[in-house]
Protein backbone atom coordinates (compact mmCIF):
# COMPACT_ATOMS: atom_id res chain seq x y z
CA UNK A 1 0.00 0.00 0.00
CA UNK A 2 1.36 3.38 -1.00
CA UNK A 3 2.14 5.59 1.96
CA UNK A 4 0.06 8.36 0.32
CA UNK A 5 -3.11 6.38 0.99
CA UNK A 6 -2.33 5.92 4.69
CA UNK A 7 -4.46 8.30 6.78
CA UNK A 8 -2.39 11.03 8.41
CA UNK A 9 -3.16 12.30 11.92
CA UNK A 10 -4.12 15.82 12.79
CA UNK A 11 -0.92 17.55 13.85
CA UNK A 12 -0.15 17.97 17.55
CA UNK A 13 2.17 20.88 18.10
CA UNK A 14 5.67 19.97 19.27
CA UNK A 15 5.23 16.19 19.12
CA UNK A 16 7.15 13.94 16.78
CA UNK A 17 4.96 11.43 14.98
CA UNK A 18 5.66 7.86 13.83
CA UNK A 19 3.23 5.62 12.01
CA UNK A 20 4.33 2.74 14.24
CA UNK A 21 6.19 2.60 17.56
CA UNK A 22 7.89 -0.70 18.38
CA UNK A 23 8.59 -1.07 22.10
CA UNK A 24 11.73 -3.11 22.71
CA UNK A 25 14.80 -4.04 20.66
CA UNK A 26 15.08 -7.66 21.71
CA UNK A 27 14.57 -10.73 19.54
CA UNK A 28 10.93 -9.78 18.81
CA UNK A 29 11.52 -6.04 18.31
CA UNK A 30 14.40 -6.45 15.87
CA UNK A 31 12.42 -9.02 13.88
CA UNK A 32 9.36 -6.77 13.85
CA UNK A 33 11.46 -3.90 12.50
CA UNK A 34 12.60 -6.14 9.64
CA UNK A 35 8.99 -7.03 8.84
CA UNK A 36 7.94 -3.37 8.96
CA UNK A 37 10.54 -2.55 6.33
CA UNK A 38 9.76 -5.45 4.04
CA UNK A 39 5.97 -5.80 4.42
CA UNK A 40 4.85 -2.22 5.11
CA UNK A 41 7.47 -0.09 3.37
CA UNK A 42 7.21 3.67 3.42
CA UNK A 43 5.79 3.95 6.91
CA UNK A 44 7.78 5.72 9.60
CA UNK A 45 8.64 3.68 12.67
CA UNK A 46 10.91 3.78 15.70
CA UNK A 47 12.11 1.25 18.29
CA UNK A 48 12.31 2.50 21.88
CA UNK A 49 14.76 0.42 23.94
CA UNK A 50 15.39 0.95 27.65
CA UNK A 51 18.81 -0.67 27.52
CA UNK A 52 21.98 0.80 26.05
CA UNK A 53 22.06 -1.91 23.40
CA UNK A 54 19.87 -4.41 21.56
CA UNK A 55 19.26 -7.97 22.62
CA UNK A 56 16.77 -7.85 25.47
CA UNK A 57 17.07 -11.15 27.33
CA UNK A 58 20.45 -11.83 25.76
CA UNK A 59 21.84 -8.59 27.13
CA UNK A 60 20.19 -8.90 30.56
CA UNK A 61 21.44 -12.42 31.25
CA UNK A 62 25.22 -12.59 31.45
CA UNK A 63 25.71 -15.45 33.88
CA UNK A 64 28.25 -18.21 33.17
CA UNK A 65 27.23 -20.49 30.33
CA UNK A 66 24.16 -18.47 29.33
CA UNK A 67 22.56 -20.11 26.30
CA UNK A 68 19.27 -20.72 24.54
CA UNK A 69 16.97 -23.51 25.63
CA UNK A 70 15.45 -23.67 22.14
CA UNK A 71 17.22 -24.65 18.94
CA UNK A 72 18.39 -21.65 16.93
CA UNK A 73 17.06 -23.09 13.68
CA UNK A 74 13.58 -22.17 14.99
CA UNK A 75 14.51 -19.57 17.61
CA UNK A 76 16.34 -17.74 14.86
CA UNK A 77 14.35 -15.73 12.36
CA UNK A 78 12.67 -17.34 9.39
CA UNK A 79 14.36 -14.81 7.10
CA UNK A 80 17.92 -15.14 8.47
CA UNK A 81 19.73 -18.50 8.28
CA UNK A 82 21.35 -19.84 11.43
CA UNK A 83 24.75 -21.35 10.70
CA UNK A 84 25.87 -22.57 14.11
CA UNK A 85 25.04 -25.45 16.45
CA UNK A 86 21.38 -25.74 17.51
CA UNK A 87 21.84 -24.56 21.11
CA UNK A 88 23.72 -21.26 21.06
CA UNK A 89 25.41 -19.12 23.68
CA UNK A 90 24.13 -15.67 24.61
CA UNK A 91 27.02 -13.91 22.82
CA UNK A 92 26.39 -15.97 19.67
CA UNK A 93 22.73 -14.94 19.65
CA UNK A 94 23.68 -11.28 20.12
CA UNK A 95 26.09 -11.55 17.21
CA UNK A 96 23.34 -13.04 15.04
CA UNK A 97 20.95 -10.22 15.97
CA UNK A 98 23.66 -7.67 15.27
CA UNK A 99 24.01 -9.05 11.75
CA UNK A 100 20.26 -8.65 11.20
CA UNK A 101 20.42 -5.03 12.36
CA UNK A 102 23.43 -4.23 10.16
CA UNK A 103 22.26 -6.09 7.06
CA UNK A 104 18.86 -4.36 7.15
CA UNK A 105 19.93 -0.88 8.29
CA UNK A 106 17.75 -1.12 11.39
CA UNK A 107 20.10 0.74 13.77
CA UNK A 108 18.94 4.14 12.53
CA UNK A 109 15.45 3.35 13.81
CA UNK A 110 16.50 2.42 17.37
CA UNK A 111 16.58 4.89 20.25
CA UNK A 112 18.53 3.33 23.10
CA UNK A 113 18.24 4.30 26.77
CA UNK A 114 14.73 5.45 26.00
CA UNK A 115 11.65 4.18 27.80
CA UNK A 116 7.91 4.69 27.41
CA UNK A 117 6.40 5.88 30.69
CA UNK A 118 2.77 6.26 29.66
CA UNK A 119 0.52 5.75 26.65
CA UNK A 120 -2.80 7.52 26.14
CA UNK A 121 -5.21 6.66 23.33
CA UNK A 122 -7.57 9.27 21.90
CA UNK A 123 -10.38 8.00 19.71
CA UNK A 124 -11.11 11.57 18.63
CA UNK A 125 -7.59 11.93 17.22
CA UNK A 126 -7.04 8.30 16.26
CA UNK A 127 -3.66 8.44 18.00
CA UNK A 128 -1.57 7.15 20.83
CA UNK A 129 0.29 9.89 22.70
CA UNK A 130 3.33 8.55 24.53
CA UNK A 131 5.33 10.07 27.35
CA UNK A 132 8.89 9.01 26.61
CA UNK A 133 11.96 9.45 28.82
CA UNK A 134 15.60 9.73 27.74
CA UNK A 135 17.30 7.82 30.54
CA UNK A 136 20.65 9.45 29.85
CA UNK A 137 19.43 13.02 30.32
CA UNK A 138 16.23 12.50 32.33
CA UNK A 139 14.36 14.50 29.69
CA UNK A 140 10.76 13.52 28.98
CA UNK A 141 9.00 14.33 25.75
CA UNK A 142 5.89 13.43 23.80
CA UNK A 143 5.54 11.21 20.76
CA UNK A 144 2.42 10.33 18.81
CA UNK A 145 1.85 7.15 16.85
CA UNK A 146 -0.92 5.43 14.99
CA UNK A 147 -0.02 1.93 16.19
CA UNK A 148 1.84 0.33 19.12
CA UNK A 149 3.72 -2.92 18.47
CA UNK A 150 4.67 -4.21 21.93
CA UNK A 151 7.83 -6.32 21.72
CA UNK A 152 9.17 -5.79 25.23
CA UNK A 153 8.80 -9.41 26.27
CA UNK A 154 7.04 -10.76 29.33
CA UNK A 155 9.24 -10.12 32.35
CA UNK A 156 10.72 -7.17 34.21
CA UNK A 157 14.39 -6.80 33.26
CA UNK A 158 15.10 -4.52 36.23
CA UNK A 159 13.39 -6.55 38.97
CA UNK A 160 13.84 -10.27 39.46
CA UNK A 161 11.64 -12.68 41.42
CA UNK A 162 13.36 -13.29 44.77
CA UNK A 163 11.52 -15.24 47.50
CA UNK A 164 11.83 -14.09 51.12
CA UNK A 165 13.23 -17.15 52.87
CA UNK A 166 13.43 -17.25 56.68
CA UNK A 167 16.88 -16.31 57.97
CA UNK A 168 18.14 -15.08 54.61
CA UNK A 169 19.87 -12.11 56.25
CA UNK A 170 21.83 -14.51 58.49
CA UNK A 171 23.66 -16.06 55.53
CA UNK A 172 27.23 -14.70 55.37
CA UNK A 173 27.94 -15.32 51.72
CA UNK A 174 26.60 -13.59 48.59
CA UNK A 175 23.07 -14.39 47.37
CA UNK A 176 22.88 -13.75 43.62
CA UNK A 177 20.03 -13.79 41.13
CA UNK A 178 21.21 -14.75 37.61
CA UNK A 179 19.32 -11.80 36.15
CA UNK A 180 21.81 -9.48 37.87
CA UNK A 181 25.07 -11.43 37.76
CA UNK A 182 28.01 -9.58 39.37
CA UNK A 183 31.04 -9.33 37.12
CA UNK A 184 33.39 -9.89 40.06
CA UNK A 185 31.70 -12.94 41.62
CA UNK A 186 34.49 -15.38 42.53
CA UNK A 187 33.13 -18.92 42.81
CA UNK A 188 36.40 -20.75 42.19
CA UNK A 189 36.91 -23.39 44.88
CA UNK A 190 33.64 -22.40 46.61
CA UNK A 191 30.63 -24.43 47.65
CA UNK A 192 27.75 -23.16 45.51
CA UNK A 193 24.05 -23.87 45.92
CA UNK A 194 21.79 -23.12 42.97
CA UNK A 195 18.14 -22.88 44.02
CA UNK A 196 15.86 -23.81 41.14
CA UNK A 197 15.26 -26.50 38.56
CA UNK A 198 14.51 -24.62 35.34
CA UNK A 199 16.54 -23.88 32.26
CA UNK A 200 18.63 -21.21 34.02
CA UNK A 201 19.69 -23.57 36.80
CA UNK A 202 20.41 -26.34 34.29
CA UNK A 203 22.64 -23.96 32.33
CA UNK A 204 24.48 -22.52 35.33
CA UNK A 205 25.32 -25.73 37.14
CA UNK A 206 27.64 -27.36 34.56
CA UNK A 207 29.31 -23.99 33.89
CA UNK A 208 29.94 -23.31 37.61
CA UNK A 209 31.02 -26.90 38.27
CA UNK A 210 34.12 -26.41 36.12
CA UNK A 211 35.72 -24.20 38.81
CA UNK A 212 33.62 -24.46 41.98
CA UNK A 213 34.49 -26.90 44.75
CA UNK A 214 31.02 -28.39 44.38
CA UNK A 215 27.63 -27.26 43.09
CA UNK A 216 24.31 -28.37 44.58
CA UNK A 217 21.09 -28.09 42.62
CA UNK A 218 18.45 -27.49 45.30
CA UNK A 219 14.94 -27.97 43.92
CA UNK A 220 11.47 -28.26 45.42
CA UNK A 221 10.40 -30.69 42.71
CA UNK A 222 11.86 -32.24 39.54
CA UNK A 223 11.65 -30.80 36.04
CA UNK A 224 11.63 -32.53 32.65
CA UNK A 225 14.71 -31.97 30.51
CA UNK A 226 15.24 -33.06 26.93
CA UNK A 227 18.71 -34.48 26.35
CA UNK A 228 20.66 -34.88 23.14
CA UNK A 229 23.72 -33.97 21.13
CA UNK A 230 24.16 -30.30 20.29
CA UNK A 231 24.15 -30.96 16.59
CA UNK A 232 21.55 -31.29 13.86
CA UNK A 233 22.52 -34.17 11.62
CA UNK A 234 20.33 -33.02 8.75
CA UNK A 235 21.90 -29.55 8.78
CA UNK A 236 25.39 -31.03 8.79
CA UNK A 237 24.55 -33.36 5.90
CA UNK A 238 23.11 -30.52 3.81
CA UNK A 239 26.20 -28.41 4.49
CA UNK A 240 28.47 -31.27 3.45
CA UNK A 241 26.50 -31.40 0.19
CA UNK A 242 27.10 -27.64 -0.18
CA UNK A 243 23.39 -26.86 -0.21
CA UNK A 244 22.87 -23.06 0.05
CA UNK A 245 22.45 -21.92 3.65
CA UNK A 246 19.05 -20.37 2.90
CA UNK A 247 17.75 -23.74 1.69
CA UNK A 248 19.38 -25.56 4.59
CA UNK A 249 17.77 -23.16 7.06
CA UNK A 250 14.26 -23.69 5.71
CA UNK A 251 14.63 -27.46 5.33
CA UNK A 252 15.98 -27.91 8.86
CA UNK A 253 13.28 -25.65 10.33
CA UNK A 254 10.63 -27.78 8.65
CA UNK A 255 12.24 -30.96 9.92
CA UNK A 256 12.43 -29.69 13.52
CA UNK A 257 8.85 -28.42 13.46
CA UNK A 258 7.62 -31.70 11.96
CA UNK A 259 9.35 -33.60 14.78
CA UNK A 260 7.77 -31.23 17.32
CA UNK A 261 4.34 -31.78 15.81
CA UNK A 262 4.80 -35.55 15.97
CA UNK A 263 5.88 -35.34 19.63
CA UNK A 264 2.89 -33.13 20.43
CA UNK A 265 0.56 -35.65 18.82
CA UNK A 266 2.18 -38.58 20.62
CA UNK A 267 2.07 -36.72 23.94
CA UNK A 268 -1.66 -36.12 23.50
CA UNK A 269 -2.33 -39.79 22.71
CA UNK A 270 0.33 -41.60 24.74
CA UNK A 271 1.69 -39.23 27.41
CA UNK A 272 3.22 -42.03 29.48
CA UNK A 273 5.22 -43.25 26.49
CA UNK A 274 6.60 -39.75 25.85
CA UNK A 275 7.47 -39.41 29.53
CA UNK A 276 9.39 -42.69 29.46
CA UNK A 277 11.15 -41.65 26.25
CA UNK A 278 12.42 -38.46 27.93
CA UNK A 279 13.42 -40.19 31.15
CA UNK A 280 15.05 -43.02 29.22
CA UNK A 281 17.54 -40.58 27.75
CA UNK A 282 18.45 -39.31 31.23
CA UNK A 283 18.93 -42.92 32.39
CA UNK A 284 21.65 -43.27 29.78
CA UNK A 285 23.81 -41.04 32.00
CA UNK A 286 22.40 -41.25 35.54
CA UNK A 287 21.42 -44.24 37.71
CA UNK A 288 17.79 -45.21 38.18
CA UNK A 289 17.60 -44.00 41.80
CA UNK A 290 18.81 -40.50 40.88
CA UNK A 291 16.43 -40.28 37.92
CA UNK A 292 13.46 -41.50 39.96
CA UNK A 293 14.10 -39.12 42.86
CA UNK A 294 15.38 -35.99 41.16
CA UNK A 295 14.35 -36.03 37.48
CA UNK A 296 10.88 -37.62 37.43
CA UNK A 297 8.30 -34.84 37.74
CA UNK A 298 4.79 -35.36 39.08
CA UNK A 299 3.18 -33.23 36.36
CA UNK A 300 2.54 -34.22 32.73
CA UNK A 301 5.14 -33.50 30.06
CA UNK A 302 4.84 -29.94 28.68
CA UNK A 303 2.79 -28.51 31.55
CA UNK A 304 5.97 -26.52 32.06
CA UNK A 305 8.61 -25.63 29.49
CA UNK A 306 10.78 -28.51 28.29
CA UNK A 307 14.38 -27.27 28.21
CA UNK A 308 17.06 -28.95 26.12
CA UNK A 309 20.32 -30.05 27.78
CA UNK A 310 22.99 -30.01 25.06
CA UNK A 311 25.30 -33.01 25.22
CA UNK A 312 23.80 -33.81 28.63
CA UNK A 313 26.23 -31.43 30.36
CA UNK A 314 24.04 -31.07 33.49
CA UNK A 315 23.80 -34.86 33.86
CA UNK A 316 27.50 -35.31 33.16
CA UNK A 317 28.38 -32.81 35.92
CA UNK A 318 26.25 -34.80 38.36
CA UNK A 319 27.69 -38.13 37.22
CA UNK A 320 31.25 -36.84 37.67
CA UNK A 321 30.56 -35.77 41.26
CA UNK A 322 31.23 -32.10 40.55
CA UNK A 323 27.54 -31.42 41.13
CA UNK A 324 24.67 -33.06 42.98
CA UNK A 325 20.91 -32.67 43.36
CA UNK A 326 18.85 -32.24 46.52
CA UNK A 327 15.05 -32.32 46.27
CA UNK A 328 13.53 -30.75 49.37
CA UNK A 329 11.99 -27.54 50.73
CA UNK A 330 13.87 -24.74 52.46
CA UNK A 331 13.25 -24.39 56.19
CA UNK A 332 15.64 -21.50 56.82
CA UNK A 333 19.01 -20.00 55.99
CA UNK A 334 21.89 -20.05 58.43
CA UNK A 335 25.30 -18.33 58.32
CA UNK A 336 26.96 -21.18 56.40
CA UNK A 337 24.17 -22.83 54.50
CA UNK A 338 20.53 -23.83 54.17
CA UNK A 339 18.51 -26.03 56.55
CA UNK A 340 15.87 -28.09 54.75
CA UNK A 341 12.45 -29.33 55.87
CA UNK A 342 13.90 -32.83 56.19
CA UNK A 343 16.45 -31.56 58.73
CA UNK A 344 19.35 -31.94 56.32
CA UNK A 345 21.69 -28.96 55.97
CA UNK A 346 23.33 -27.97 52.71
CA UNK A 347 26.62 -26.14 53.23
CA UNK A 348 27.17 -23.09 51.03
CA UNK A 349 29.63 -20.27 50.46
CA UNK A 350 27.50 -18.77 47.63
CA UNK A 351 23.80 -19.12 46.89
CA UNK A 352 22.43 -18.57 43.39
CA UNK A 353 18.67 -17.97 43.36
CA UNK A 354 17.56 -19.18 39.92
CA UNK A 355 14.00 -18.53 41.05
CA UNK A 356 12.46 -17.06 37.94
CA UNK A 357 11.02 -13.84 36.64
CA UNK A 358 8.72 -11.06 37.72
CA UNK A 359 6.01 -10.84 35.05
CA UNK A 360 5.77 -7.50 33.27
CA UNK A 361 2.39 -6.73 31.72
CA UNK A 362 2.76 -4.57 28.60
CA UNK A 363 6.08 -3.27 29.87
CA UNK A 364 4.47 -1.88 33.05
CA UNK A 365 3.53 1.21 31.03
CA UNK A 366 0.68 3.32 32.41
CA UNK A 367 -2.05 2.97 29.75
CA UNK A 368 -5.27 4.87 29.38
CA UNK A 369 -7.95 4.78 26.71
CA UNK A 370 -10.01 7.92 26.13
CA UNK A 371 -9.09 9.24 29.53
CA UNK A 372 -9.81 6.02 31.46
CA UNK A 373 -6.96 4.01 33.02
CA UNK A 374 -6.61 0.60 31.43
CA UNK A 375 -7.16 -2.48 33.57
CA UNK A 376 -5.61 -5.09 31.34
CA UNK A 377 -7.26 -7.89 33.32
CA UNK A 378 -10.68 -6.61 32.18
CA UNK A 379 -9.86 -7.25 28.52
CA UNK A 380 -10.27 -10.45 26.51
CA UNK A 381 -7.45 -11.52 24.25
CA UNK A 382 -7.78 -12.05 20.52
CA UNK A 383 -5.39 -14.91 19.66
CA UNK A 384 -3.03 -13.78 22.42
CA UNK A 385 -1.93 -10.68 20.50
CA UNK A 386 -4.76 -8.08 20.51
CA UNK A 387 -7.22 -7.18 23.25
CA UNK A 388 -10.81 -5.99 23.47
CA UNK A 389 -11.15 -2.29 24.19
CA UNK A 390 -7.48 -1.64 23.41
CA UNK A 391 -7.18 0.01 19.98
CA UNK A 392 -4.28 -0.09 17.54
CA UNK A 393 -2.03 -2.31 19.64
CA UNK A 394 -0.49 -5.76 19.29
CA UNK A 395 1.66 -7.59 21.84
CA UNK A 396 4.15 -10.27 20.84
CA UNK A 397 3.79 -13.00 23.46
CA UNK A 398 5.58 -16.09 22.22
CA UNK A 399 5.21 -19.82 22.71
CA UNK A 400 5.90 -21.84 25.83
CA UNK A 401 6.29 -25.15 24.00
CA UNK A 402 8.08 -23.89 20.90
CA UNK A 403 10.54 -21.15 20.09
CA UNK A 404 9.41 -17.63 21.01
CA UNK A 405 10.52 -16.24 17.66
CA UNK A 406 8.17 -18.48 15.70
CA UNK A 407 5.27 -16.37 16.95
CA UNK A 408 7.18 -13.13 16.46
CA UNK A 409 7.58 -14.10 12.79
CA UNK A 410 3.88 -14.97 12.46
CA UNK A 411 2.94 -11.59 13.90
CA UNK A 412 5.56 -10.01 11.66
CA UNK A 413 3.33 -11.02 8.78
CA UNK A 414 0.04 -10.21 10.52
CA UNK A 415 0.70 -6.68 11.85
CA UNK A 416 1.87 -5.15 8.52
CA UNK A 417 -1.04 -6.88 6.78
CA UNK A 418 -3.39 -5.27 9.30
CA UNK A 419 -1.74 -1.86 8.78
CA UNK A 420 -2.06 -2.20 5.01
CA UNK A 421 -5.69 -3.23 5.38
CA UNK A 422 -6.40 -0.19 7.56
CA UNK A 423 -4.80 2.00 4.92
CA UNK A 424 -7.03 0.53 2.25
CA UNK A 425 -10.08 1.28 4.37
CA UNK A 426 -8.78 4.75 5.31
CA UNK A 427 -9.26 3.66 8.93
CA UNK A 428 -7.38 5.23 11.80
CA UNK A 429 -8.65 2.88 14.47
CA UNK A 430 -9.05 -0.88 14.79
CA UNK A 431 -10.24 -2.76 17.83
CA UNK A 432 -11.24 -6.35 18.36
CA UNK A 433 -14.66 -7.09 19.82
CA UNK A 434 -16.73 -10.15 20.63
CA UNK A 435 -19.07 -11.17 17.83
CA UNK A 436 -22.78 -11.95 18.26
CA UNK A 437 -21.95 -15.66 18.22
CA UNK A 438 -19.53 -15.10 21.12
CA UNK A 439 -22.28 -13.88 23.46
CA UNK A 440 -22.25 -15.90 26.66
CA UNK A 441 -18.85 -17.42 25.84
CA UNK A 442 -17.22 -18.90 28.90
CA UNK A 443 -14.21 -16.88 30.01
CA UNK A 444 -11.14 -18.15 31.81
CA UNK A 445 -7.60 -17.14 32.73
CA UNK A 446 -4.97 -16.12 30.18
CA UNK A 447 -3.54 -19.64 30.36
CA UNK A 448 -5.27 -22.66 31.86
CA UNK A 449 -3.06 -23.72 34.81
CA UNK A 450 -4.01 -27.32 34.08
CA UNK A 451 -2.37 -26.87 30.69
CA UNK A 452 0.68 -24.74 31.56
CA UNK A 453 1.66 -23.43 35.00
CA UNK A 454 5.13 -21.90 35.40
CA UNK A 455 5.55 -19.83 38.54
CA UNK A 456 5.93 -16.45 36.83
CA UNK A 457 2.48 -16.89 35.25
CA UNK A 458 0.61 -18.36 38.20
CA UNK A 459 1.92 -15.59 40.49
CA UNK A 460 0.60 -12.88 38.15
CA UNK A 461 -2.36 -14.44 36.33
CA UNK A 462 -4.70 -11.91 37.96
CA UNK A 463 -2.95 -9.14 35.99
CA UNK A 464 -3.42 -10.75 32.60
CA UNK A 465 -6.36 -10.60 30.18
CA UNK A 466 -9.09 -13.21 30.06
CA UNK A 467 -9.40 -15.87 27.40
CA UNK A 468 -12.43 -17.47 25.81
CA UNK A 469 -13.30 -21.04 24.89
CA UNK A 470 -12.83 -20.50 21.14
CA UNK A 471 -9.47 -20.46 19.31
CA UNK A 472 -9.98 -16.81 18.27
CA UNK A 473 -10.13 -15.73 21.89
CA UNK A 474 -7.22 -17.72 23.27
CA UNK A 475 -3.46 -17.88 23.04
CA UNK A 476 -3.56 -21.51 21.94
CA UNK A 477 0.19 -22.03 22.41
CA UNK A 478 0.17 -24.13 19.24
CA UNK A 479 2.46 -22.94 16.48
CA UNK A 480 1.41 -25.95 14.43
CA UNK A 481 -2.17 -24.64 14.29
CA UNK A 482 -1.37 -20.93 14.15
CA UNK A 483 1.07 -21.19 11.23
CA UNK A 484 -1.97 -21.93 9.06
CA UNK A 485 -4.56 -19.92 11.03
CA UNK A 486 -2.71 -16.57 11.11
CA UNK A 487 -2.28 -16.11 7.33
CA UNK A 488 -5.95 -17.08 6.92
CA UNK A 489 -7.29 -14.47 9.37
CA UNK A 490 -10.10 -12.54 7.67
CA UNK A 491 -9.35 -8.91 8.48
CA UNK A 492 -12.92 -8.05 7.51
CA UNK A 493 -14.27 -10.56 10.01
CA UNK A 494 -16.86 -9.39 12.52
CA UNK A 495 -14.27 -9.38 15.32
CA UNK A 496 -12.41 -6.45 13.69
CA UNK A 497 -14.05 -3.05 14.16
CA UNK A 498 -12.63 -0.20 12.07
CA UNK A 499 -13.25 3.52 12.43
CA UNK A 500 -12.19 6.35 10.11
Task: Describe, in plain words, how this protein is organized in 3D.
With 500 residues, the chain is an alpha/beta fold. It has two domains: 3-157 and 358-499, FAD/NAD(P)-binding domain; 162-230 and 270-355, 3-Layer(bba) Sandwich (FAD/NAD(P)-binding domain). 28% of the residues lie in helices and 23% in strands. The chain has 13 helices and 25 strands. The protein has helices at 27-39, 57-60, 72-75, 90-103, 199-209, 233-240, 245-269, 271-283, 288-294, 313-320, 404-425, 455-458, 479-485, and strands at 16-23, 45-48, 110-111, 114-122, 127-134, 140-150, 155-160, 175-176, 191-195, 214-219, 225-228, 307-310, 323-327, 330-334, 337-340, 345-347, 350-353, 357-359, 366-369, 372-373, 381-382, 386-387, 393-395, 429-432, 496-499. Strands 1, 2, 3, 4, 5, 6, 19, 20 and 23 form a nine-stranded mixed beta sheet that branches. The chain has a five-stranded parallel beta sheet with strand order 8-17-9-10-13. The protein has a three-stranded antiparallel beta sheet with strand order 14-15-16, with no helix packed on it. It is globular. 41% of the residues are buried. The model is unreliable at 1-11 (pLDDT under 50).
Write the layout of secondary structure elements.
Layout: E1 16-23, H1 27-39, E2 45-48, H2 57-60, H3 72-75, H4 90-103, E3 110-111, E4 114-122, E5 127-134, E6 140-150, E7 155-160, E8 175-176, E9 191-195, H5 199-209, E10 214-219, E11 225-228, H6 233-240, H7 245-269, H8 271-283, H9 288-294, E12 307-310, H10 313-320, E13 323-327, E14 330-334, E15 337-340, E16 345-347, E17 350-353, E18 357-359, E19 366-369, E20 372-373, E21 381-382, E22 386-387, E23 393-395, H11 404-425, E24 429-432, H12 455-458, H13 479-485, E25 496-499
Parallel strand pairs: 1-2, 1-6, 2-3, 4-19, 6-23, 8-17, 9-10, 9-17, 10-13, 11-12
Antiparallel strand pairs: 4-5, 5-6, 7-18, 14-15, 15-16, 19-20, 21-22, 24-25
Helix pairs in contact: 1-11, 5-10, 6-7, 7-8
